[in-house]
Design goal:
- About 75% of the residues lie in helices and about 0% in strands.
- The chain has one domain (about 5-75).
- It has helices spanning about 5-10, 10-35, 45-75.
- The model has no long low-confidence stretch (mean pLDDT about 85).
- With about 80 residues, it is mostly helical.
- The two termini are about 15 Å apart.
């Protein structure tokens, strides 16, 4: 499917929305695990906040890649694409 068509496909948009929500949840989980409140990041010094957000984003991206890899493996096991 062409990229422009995918943007208008309700299934693709729904999947992107779910992925965005999962990414945010993973980032918030990471931040909380480090002892911070995601709602209070604005109270941190800019350098510390940016470092924490970058680390949280990298963590979430890694987890999302792992999830996608596992899903791909499962689809292959079931003979799906």
């Amino acid at each position: 499917m062409h990229a422009a068509a995918e943007r208008h496909d309700p299934d693709t948009r729904a999947m992107e929305d779910q992925t965005a929500h999962l990414e945010l949840a993973l980032m918030e989980q990471f931040i909380r695990a480090r002892g911070y409140d995601p709602a209070k990041l604005g109270e941190l010094l800019a350098d510390e906040r940016e470092r924490l957000q970058k680390e949280a984003l990298a963590h979430a991206a890694g987890k999302l890649a792992e999830i996608e890899s596992r899903a791909h493996f499962i689809r292959e096991l079931h003979g799906e694409r």
